[in-house]
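Duplicate of earlier report; BioF-keto--aminopelargonate synthetase input re-posted below.
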Amino acid sequence: MPPTNLDRTLSSILSSRLSQGRLRRLTIPSATSIDFSSNSYLSLSSHPAVKAAYISLLTSHLQSDSSSSSSPQSGHSLGSGGSRLLDGNSAFAEDLERQIADFHGAEAGLLFNSGFEANTGLFACVPQKGDVIVYDELIHASVHDGMRLSRAQRIPFAHNRVYDAASSSSVSEQGESKYPSLDALLQSLTKGPQGEAINSGETNIFIAVEGIYSMDGDAAPLKHIVECVEKRLPKGNGYIIVDEAHSTGILGPQGRGLVCQLGLQDRIWARVHTFGKAMGCSGAIVLCSSTARNYLINYARSFIYTTAMSFPSLASIHTTYNFLASGHADPLIKQLCSLIHHMHSLLADIIKRHAPSPELFRINPEVPQSPILPLFTNKARSLAQYCQERGFTVRPIVAPTVPMGQDRVRRGGGGGIV
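Output:
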């Protein structure tokens, strides 16, 4: 069919992005390239023991009683049959939620089809009119989309800056920012027009952070965040939500995440663990109280109005969690930490020997806290192409996924902030 006026409008917009060098394209990774790009930090999806356990579980459940039951409730169907509120629920799904919640030291959990749906569902429905969401300026795009759907006010604070620089307890992983520290922001809220309702505990404040940030790979100073929130909101109306997407599987005992690593399970209101990174699966879970779980079942639209995960998806999650809980992933986590230090050391040595301009080639001087290692450059696309032509799967990350002037190629990660 001939192009419509709308097609011409969209084509013009795409041409503008192409002229700026910002056009996104789908590509197919080479099977022979060395992976420096994907989120599969532990390579669990290709691990022989994980694959064997998955196939065994899948086969046993799909073949068991297949001749006597065709109901989705039996757990033996390939598909789920519908949303979980209709015909898509199963005992296997509910058992899996309890298994994951127990593993992470949480009261309850609710599965979502993706981390994006978990964040949009959670932030869209839980904060009420009059509540406030304060969020790290580098929070993931899915949280932004959830907040836009919320009726609550939303205010950013400087990335990983808990206190002002003048404070002896200053904690910051970033330089200058146009936003205040978390402490300064909470102080201003308690003294502003909403101060009386906040100080009395009537207004809820939600604090949104990530365990490990998907663009810079740095960890949140979570202990200081908790202490700050509890100090400024002593009525207990400060509710911290941690997106553990990039810390699941690699931080904490047996990969339980940053919250468990720091022993903060009882001081964090909700956690979002996703399975598409180190876990090598797909889907996500919101860990929270039983009351919050029931509320999400009733009000989270990304849960209510979507087809439930199929049994094969649930089985893959079950298999990888068993692999973590058994301790079999511990050597892989240790090896990953060794590789992180080795790669950072090699890049730091290149910079020391060749002294390139910071605009052309620089890294964060601190040893990374995660497998996400950004290499900042104003030639991100050219450098990525150069590496790809030599057998290394490296991706350019450019605006608008990251702020203007912060283009990079990056080992590991996924997501964005806008």
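Residues 329-418 form a domain with the Aspartate Aminotransferase, domain 1 fold (CATH 3.90.1150.10).

Merging into the original ticket.
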